[in-house]
């Protein structure tokens, strides 16, 4: 099989519209719709802990759902671009700093996007709570069938922001493998991040590179990071006990993504500038995956600490 696909989907007013950009947009749209359909995340505000005169805010739907999407799009794209610059092209800071913002020349880092996305969610949570005139909050997470998951009361503090941040990140983590799947498919269409040379029947010739059959590493990652990870996250989401640990699904998702990415890097060709060998042992992507694996484990432990703090705050 020969991969000679055109990365440009169509043209509009002289501008090239790439499949990568289309899939990126669809990723945000599909994930936001799926979150709002399957989960209901509310912040209940009140002046007293009795919550008599309360006010409810729906986070994943309505105007706040739209604003969350804007925060996510901007933070993920900015984080992806800056992450690529820091991790893979630091010379841009010295050579031409404006090149960092020229996204049409490509160069996005998934690890950078994860960092940017989390910062965006945290800023959104602070934005929601800063606009409130109330003192006490309940962060309520339910399945759309109203199956109860979590109901935590806390005062206006960093704890409230963290609870809301990790509740949102958990909702996103459940469906983010859809974005990973579409992203890897677009990598395959672009003929980038291709694999090492192979004699196996599964080998694909990337016409833009050379005439040797190579591992379709993008497809491997699409299967593991997309399909398999989506199966894991959606099944975890059915467990209300796991969802009651705010941040648990986010941490587990990051751990599995890091493992899958680390394994697939063994079959990704080191010819691309995206894959630089560090100390001749592991690739740049693998080293970043080790860090993200540790962060994922830390998030899991932190979610347990949050559970303890919220229980303590009720006493």
UniProtKB/TrEMBL annotation:
GO terms for molecular function: phosphatidylglycerol-prolipoprotein diacylglyceryl transferase activity. GO terms for biological process: lipoprotein biosynthetic process. Belongs to the Lgt family. Pathway: Protein modification; lipoprotein biosynthesis (diacylglyceryl transfer). Pfam families: LGT. The chain crosses the membrane at residues 17-39, 68-88, 108-129, 158-182, 219-237, 249-268, 288-309. Catalyzes the transfer of the diacylglyceryl group from phosphatidylglycerol to the sulfhydryl group of the N-terminal cysteine of a prolipoprotein, the first step in the formation of mature lipoproteins. It is a multi-pass membrane protein. It is found in: Cell membrane. It is an enzyme of class 2 (transferase). Keywords: Cell membrane, Lipoprotein, Membrane, Transferase, Transmembrane, Transmembrane helix. This is Phosphatidylglycerol--prolipoprotein diacylglyceryl transferase. GO terms for cellular component: plasma membrane. Its EC number is 2.5.1.145. Its main location: membrane. A 1,2-diacyl-sn-glycero-3-phospho-(1'-sn-glycerol) binds at residue 184.
């Amino acid at each position: 099989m020969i991969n000679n696909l055109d990365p440009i989907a169509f043209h509009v007013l002289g501008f090239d519209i790439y499949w990568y950009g289309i899939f990126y947009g669809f990723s945000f749209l599909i994930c936001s719709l799926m979150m709002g359909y399957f989960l209901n995340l509310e912040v209940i505000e009140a002046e007293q802990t009795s919550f008599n005169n309360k006010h409810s805010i729906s986070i994943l739907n309505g105007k706040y759902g739209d604003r969350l999407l804007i925060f996510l799009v901007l933070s993920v794209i900015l984080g992806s671009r800056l992450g690529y610059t820091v991790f893979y092209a630091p010379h841009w800071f010295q050579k031409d700093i404006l090149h960092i913002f020229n996204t049409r020349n490509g160069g996005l880092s998934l690890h950078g996007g994860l960092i940017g996305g989390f910062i965006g969610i945290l800023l959104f949570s602070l934005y929601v709570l800063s606009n409130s005139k109330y003192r006490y909050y309940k962060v309520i997470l339910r399945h759309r069938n109203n199956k109860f998951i979590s109901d935590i009361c806390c005062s206006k503090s960093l704890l409230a922001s963290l609870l809301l941040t990790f509740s949102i990140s958990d909702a996103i983590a459940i469906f983010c493998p859809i974005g990973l799947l579409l992203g890897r498919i677009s990598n395959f269409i672009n003929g980038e991040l291709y694999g090492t040379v192979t004699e196996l029947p599964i080998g694909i010739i990337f016409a833009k590179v050379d005439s040797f059959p190579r591992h379709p590493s993008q497809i491997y990652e699409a299967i593991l990071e997309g399909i398999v990870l989506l199966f894991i996250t959606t099944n975890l989401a059915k467990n209300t006990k796991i969802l009651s640990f705010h941040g648990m699904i986010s941490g587990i998702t990051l751990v599995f993504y890091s493992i899958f990415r680390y394994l697939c890097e063994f079959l990704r060709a080191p010819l691309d500038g995206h894959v630089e060998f560090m100390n001749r042992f592991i690739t740049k992507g693998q080293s970043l995956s080790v860090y993200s694996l540790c962060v994922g484990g830390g998030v899991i432990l932190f979610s347990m600490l949050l559970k303890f703090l919220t229980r303590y705050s009720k006493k």
